[in-house]
Amino acid sequence: MNEFELIARLTKSLPTNPNVVIGAGDDCAVLDFGLPDKWLLFKTDAIVEGVHFTKDTPPEKIGRKALARALSDIAAMAGTPTAALVTIALPQKFDVKFVEAIYDGMRALAQKHGVAIVGGETTTNPERILISIALLGFVPRGKAVLRSGAKTGDAIFVTAELGGSLAGKHLEFEPRLAEARWLAENFPIHAMIDLSDGLAGDLRHILKASRVGAELLKTAIPISRAAKEISRNRACQSAADPPTHVGGYKPAFVAALTEGEDFELLFTVVGADAVKLLDAWKKQFPKLRLSCIGKITADEGITI
Q1: pTM of the predicted protein model
Q2: What are the C-alpha distances in Å from 156 to residues 44, 248, 265, 279?
Q3: Of 27-31, 89-93, 136-140, 226-230, which range is least confident?
């Protein structure tokens, strides 16, 4: 059983109540507490030493990544983050200065996005560090962008370039909060998600939720320079000098499709708006690439 099958099994009969607009199955839970102009967004995310970072990772980057992952999910709903709780689990023999530096990384990113860190929990965990972030945000009432709204004929877009996590982008990425809000305010975005599990995996989340398929244009998929360089270097390694990356050598295009933790926005919009959106984007975000990489189809699955 893989992660997504386990999630589906665990969430199929969870309790709910009248405050729940959207429960498990999207980037954030959407809750209605009767505020006249907004819904609340609720998200939790965790990172684990040895899985999401190593013992050699600078502590400030560990803390930054822990919060940035949750911020990216708020962005995927076109929301605005507001307050976070931090749970950190530490080995019994921990370095106080190292832990303080983790919080320095979280603090800097929180201040940048106007997020209050309002408490949390400390506990012990044998051998490795674990950090869990619970994050609240808000979105204008009725304006949360879900995974389930993609429609046949929609154009599929992705921000920036993909495959950069191979070269450390997963520690330094910028949550696309401002970009997502601008999109939702200016165009009827049908579906959106952040790329945490790779383009192919996260696109399938949209397709499953929307009950549609997708056709991707291989030459349009933006591949990062880092992914291309790493791919070339690995291809040149001899059998006597095997790749050191877990999972071995992957061509750059495959890495762009399958390597997770790019944390870019993947979204769909009515095809007739594609050119208009690209033109407006270039004026609003001239330094950030936006690519139309395909279209939504009626037939299920992904074709390239």
Answers
A1: 0.91
A2: 27, 30, 11, 16
A3: 226-230
